[in-house]
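Ticket #4471: structure export looks truncated?
Reporter: QA, pipeline team
Priority: medium

Steps to reproduce: submit the single chain below to the structure queue and open the exported record.
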Amino acid sequence: MPKEEQGRAAHWATATAEPNYKNQPPVEITINDRAATRQAIIRRVRENGMEFVERSDWGAYKNRPDSMVNDWHYRSIAIHHAGRSAACGPAALQLQEIQSKHMERMKADDIGYHYAIDCLGNIYEGRDIRFKGEHVRQFNTAVIGIVLLENLADPEEGGDLTAKARTFLHTIGFGRIPEAPSEQRETTEKFIKILREFFNISVLGGHKEFPHQTKDGKICPGKVGLAFVKQLRTRLALSAP
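Actual output as written to the record:
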């Protein structure tokens, strides 16, 4: 991990930080200095006692920068789960698998999500925040994508063979009740608060709540994940998509 940078993070609205917990003098970051803002977000996470793992530290594959689209004036956050085949486990391997799936099967330019949060509450950098994500079909502009590295769907969700198999295993006592661990929930809330220091975020939604999603049969982030998103919306006074 690189050494934690000194100084203060920028506030999105004013581009000037508020005093930090060490009462160090603020360092001004202009709105257009996006690289510095990316680093300031990382710094704020670490100042708040959370782990932040940059792309190079989890072994991200090379993206396709020539075709990626700039984005910046984020107003919304979309919460995803890693899918019905996911479970708490080594986050770096999960992210490599997700990135491979997005780039090879879905022809994306990089991993679609901007950030990931594992079951231990560690935050991972996905797609560079300076680029538009590829995580909500036809609705990615100005939307930050955060994926929770866990399955948060009930067994019967999806109505397909996978759902039937999961439901059967659950009825005979082998199924696992989906749940976001407390560390993951706590970090997600703290991280959203940090992102709101930098961007004028007014909307928080689960993937399937965004326009154009349900007609594809999207269940992400699952019933458990969506219940968590709704709780966060209430506590953070944010709007639904």
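Status: closed, not a bug. The export was complete when the record was re-opened. Leaving a note from the reviewer for reference: Helices lie at 34-47, 55-58, 91-105, 161-171, 182-198, 222-236.
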